[in-house]
Design a protein that fits this description.
The protein is α/β, with parallel strands linked by helices and 226 residues long. It has 7 helices and 10 strands. The protein has a 6-stranded mixed sheet with strand order 6-7-8-3-9-10, with helices on both faces. It has a 4-stranded antiparallel sheet with strand order 2-1-4-5, with helices on one face. Helix 5 packs parallel to helix 6.
């Protein structure tokens, strides 16, 4: 599903954010990526969604070598990889329904398809009764669930969750992780980037630890080692 082959990313003048990374994530896996701030986790994610160009190596998603992906191909890639961020990135003047619909509108989907898909994904995340509220009218956990719904509208094969619980209390954080686990059970590959030691240890799933741009640990049933 995802392969990094000898991937190196250098920021001027000589900071190696990624240093000869070799990584294989199989279809349907749930993988946690952990490491201190500035160790390369964000660069790993950005290179996977085409936001950063690597300097050496190769990145393959499915059968698609995205190493030298063209700008006009990036939207196609982003429809295969759903992304959830720590700060939700919702549009404050749009309702939850409109926020999710917007992800389809920018891709040119028909109104009929949007009206069909949006209620479905909002129901998956348990927000079918709050679709017409604005982000400021719901909790942080509900905002993050809206962001998950938005990431699911294209039925992606891969879901990247970059610190999705960073702005949430423990109860809401647990709900978000349970939701990611349910999505994973449907066959979606989930890559979770997190600092949350308790969540990683409780998951008992594969854990990849990055330090100074290198993978220093890759445990099939892992723990947060840092």
């Amino acid at each position: 599903m995802i392969r990094f082959i000898n991937v190196t990313k250098i920021y001027h003048p000589d900071v190696r954010a990624l240093n000869k990374i070799n990584l294989h994530i199989k279809p349907g896996e749930f993988v946690s990526v952990v490491g201190q701030s500035g160790t390369g986790k964000t660069t790993l994610i950005k290179s996977l969604i085409g936001e950063e160009r690597i300097d050496e190596g190769k990145i393959v998603v499915g059968d698609w070598d995205i190493t030298d992906i063209r700008k006009n191909e990036i939207p196609v890639l982003r429809r295969q990889i759903g992304v959830i961020f720590q700060d939700f990135k919702l549009l404050p003047k749009k309702t939850l329904r409109e926020n999710v619909a917007f992800a389809l509108q920018v891709c040119g989907q028909t109104r009929q398809k949007i009206r069909s898909i949006v209620p479905q994904v909002l129901k998956i995340v348990g927000l079918e009764g709050k679709m017409d509220r604005y982000p400021s009218e719901v909790s942080g956990g509900e905002q993050q669930r809206t962001a998950i719904a938005r990431a699911l509208v294209h039925r992606p094969k891969i879901l990247l969750a970059d610190e999705p619980t960073g702005n949430l209390d423990s109860i809401n954080a647990e709900e978000i992780i349970e939701m990611l686990l349910r999505i994973n059970k449907f066959g979606t590959t989930v890559v979770l980037v997190t600092h949350n030691r308790e969540i990683v240890n409780r998951l008992k799933r594969r854990v990849i630890t990055i330090e100074n741009g290198r993978i220093v640990s890759d445990q099939a049933v892992g723990k947060y080692l840092l």
